[in-house]
């Protein structure tokens, strides 16, 4: 059985994801699609609009065969670590290939770029340091340093968000000495972060979430999502009366920032000198997450990095916590599978290099501290009994079966 | 000018408090009444129904001349420390006397009891240790040890809550070598913690709060409170749409308990081994503060001690924080004064042994860390802009003037 790996967030699953999933199976010639998906908090430091369980169902009902969770310690991270954790999981699950969406849609320039950056590593790093010293943000420094390198083959435009992720998947595989083969599918129409809608079937997840928020219902997004997504979103809303948004978490973040002492703030993961004071002053005077972020934003920090720091403060994730999570994931947390996914899993199960977790309660609690806190915080914005229901799924929910 | 000191919480100010205030001035022959009042969180580990500013106004409009705040580090404490902090402030403000309400209403047995316990200190302490070892709560052990002592004079029944406080005020004055004279007024009708109403004019603060909660308005409590209290309560509710109750703070306490790691929990003030695990398990499974408290309660911990621990967890008050607050208050925070109070203050001002704080912003921020966090947490349950308004009073509100 050939398997293709996909790294995703599905926030929510839409027609573009459906296209990517189908294409991935087709161009890689795979029988099963394995998805490494972030949990309740996402790579760009945001709560997912619906929990991982609902997003798992969406994926399974639209053609995914196996969905595993990217642990919090790798999901809420910059692209490099996010990619390393994801590729590690897919490689551990014996994926024959990995297929990612990109603005470019041609795999060779990605491979050349990874080689190029490896060959010119020293120059590249010294250029990065140079730009950082000039006071530009890290991603910006990367882009500038990259543009300074000599290129004699086709390379990738690393200013595009999905190209960057694609680059990091391949670099991660190289670092992990994995033999997984790479494919890429050109993203159709919708830009990753696009807030407007260009096509009558395809819209970015960002614009879909924006529409839901504006309209207060799901009606307008129906053309852009598979029927299964619509049904799952609708069912979730009917039960929990809630789609999750940063603003819901704002009172907790504010409370947290304002009650931490300076030592505690300095221990938070990814926080740098000077930021604690800035965060606290902004928290005191801001009435919403949006205005807080606008107050705290500087050239030095990207919006997404600040959002991730906020998620870490919210979940009380310290540098020590992150260090003890290790350099690669320590377990494979199974969120759901199709009949075919199950068949595949039965074949590879005995050779897995990591424990396969289908019931959390069967493993030491300490293994899941960060994921558990993330689940707790995620459900905290809901009223009882919804809060308890959703939180208890973290322990009690067996992998979701489709078919 | 003779001055009488009063220790109070005024939660809210009612006819019983009015009676006590008038009687205190009368029997002590005082021109001014000075009130040491707890801030937004109270001795028994509860949020006050309305903020300290509103309660200060109530007191001033009903005959108090000077209201100063018992700092958080002394207010949210067992009776002994609460009394020490309060008496220290009143003594520092040169009160000629202190007058407290008690179930007994006769001062001599209080004085005898303080002497008795001083004389038989060793026996008393060894009996306390004996009962603690038997697994009974600290207050219960005190009461049992006390009943074991030989008494050849009239002593006080220390099983009654106001008698206990009275005893501690006198013991504190002795410890502080203060010459302040003591008076006591017999409490009329309403027991301290009484939830029912016996008299047509007097009801306990507890029963008044219960009525407000039940009825959702102030109508039924009108007979039991001065007109000024009614007006202030009504104005507060009109502006903020909110009376403060533990249940409002429950989501934050739950969030806090469930995101702290074990080290952090163990650093909280007054927490003992074994309790962190118990608190976290109860927080996971409880849907309200009431049910949480019922789940966490044991014979070993009194309800009020557990509530205080919860307030400390909520405000992130560690053992280190409390230690650095010192053994006695480090400042006199002025909340409000009448014309006569101002006159009095002008007379004693130059001899005060402590800094007099009328504008917080004129002093180092570190001095007020705990009070500031308490004010922050207290206002966190309100919607914007009420939250910002109330919180900014912590810095900006000058002492309230009544004439």
From TrEMBL, chains A, B:
GO terms assigned for molecular function: ATP binding; ligase activity, forming carbon-nitrogen bonds; transferase activity; tRNA binding
GO biological process, one term: tRNA modification
Record EC number: 6.3.4.-
Keywords: ATP-binding, Cytoplasm, Ligase, Nucleotide-binding, RNA-binding, tRNA processing, tRNA-binding
UniProt-annotated location(s): Cytoplasm
Residue stretches spanning the membrane: none
Enzymatic class: ligase
GO cellular component: cytoplasm
Cross-referenced InterPro entries: Rossmann-like_a/b/a_fold (IPR014729), tRNA(Met)_cyd_acetate_ligase (IPR008513)
Annotated positions binding ATP: 7-20, 101, 162, 187
Catalytic activity: cytidine(34) in elongator tRNA(Met) + acetate + ATP = N(4)-acetylcytidine(34) in elongator tRNA(Met) + AMP + diphosphate
Matches recorded under Gene3D superfamilies: HUPs
Function: Catalyzes the formation of N(4)-acetylcytidine (ac(4)C) at the wobble position of elongator tRNA(Met), using acetate and ATP as substrates. First activates an acetate ion to form acetyladenylate (Ac-AMP) and then transfers the acetyl group to tRNA to form ac(4)C34.
Family annotation (HAMAP family): TmcAL
Family classification: Belongs to the TmcAL family.
Protein name as catalogued: tRNA(Met) cytidine acetate ligase
Source organism of the structure: Siminovitchia acidinfaciens
Gene: tmcAL
């Amino acid at each position: 059985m050939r398997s293709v790996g996909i790294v995703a967030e599905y926030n929510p699953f839409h027609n573009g994801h459906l296209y990517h999933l189908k294409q991935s199976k087709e161009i890689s010639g795979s029988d099963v699609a394995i998805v490494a998906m972030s949990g309740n908090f996402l790579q760009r430091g945001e709560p997912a609009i619906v929990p991982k369980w609902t997003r798992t169902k969406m994926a399974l009902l639209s053609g995914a065969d196996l969905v595993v969770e990217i642990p919090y310690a790798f999901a809420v991270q910059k692209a490099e670590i996010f990619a390393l954790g994801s590729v590690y999981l897919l490689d551990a699950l014996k994926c024959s290939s990995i297929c990612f969406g990109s603005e470019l849609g041609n795999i060779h320039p990605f491979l050349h770029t990874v080689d190029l950056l490896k060959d010119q590593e020293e120059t590249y790093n010294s250029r990065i340091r140079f730009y950082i010293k000039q006071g530009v943000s890290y991603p910006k420094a990367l882009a500038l340093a990259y543009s300074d390198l000599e290129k004699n083959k086709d390379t990738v435009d690393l200013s595009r968000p999905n190209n960057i992720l694609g680059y990091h998947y391949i670099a991660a595989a190289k670092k992990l000495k994995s033999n997984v083969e790479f494919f890429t599918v050109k993203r159709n129409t919708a830009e990753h972060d696009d807030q407007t809608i260009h096509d009558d079937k395809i819209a970015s997840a960002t614009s879909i979430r924006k529409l839901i928020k504006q309209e207060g219902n799901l009606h307008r997004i129906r053309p852009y999502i598979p029927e299964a997504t619509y049904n799952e979103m609708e069912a979730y809303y009917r039960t929990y009366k809630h789609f999750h948004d940063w603003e819901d978490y704002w009172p907790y973040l504010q409370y947290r920032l304002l009650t931490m002492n300076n030592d505690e703030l300095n221990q938070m993961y990814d926080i740098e000198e000077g930021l604690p004071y800035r965060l606290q002053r902004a928290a005191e005077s801001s009435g919403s997450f949006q205005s807080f972020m606008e107050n705290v934003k500087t050239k030095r920090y990207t919006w997404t990095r600040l959002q991730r720091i906020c998620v870490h403060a919210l979940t009380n994730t310290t540098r020590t916590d992150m260090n003890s999570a290790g350099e690669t994931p320590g377990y494979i947390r199974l969120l759901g599978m199709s009949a075919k996914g199950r068949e595949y899993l039965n074949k590879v199960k005995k050779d897995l290099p990591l424990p396969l977790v289908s019931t959390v309660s069967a493993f030491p609690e300490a293994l899941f501290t960060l994921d558990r806190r993330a689940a707790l915080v995620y459900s905290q914005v809901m009223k009882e009994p919804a809060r308890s229901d959703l939180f208890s799924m973290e322990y009690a929910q067996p992998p979701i079966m489709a078919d």
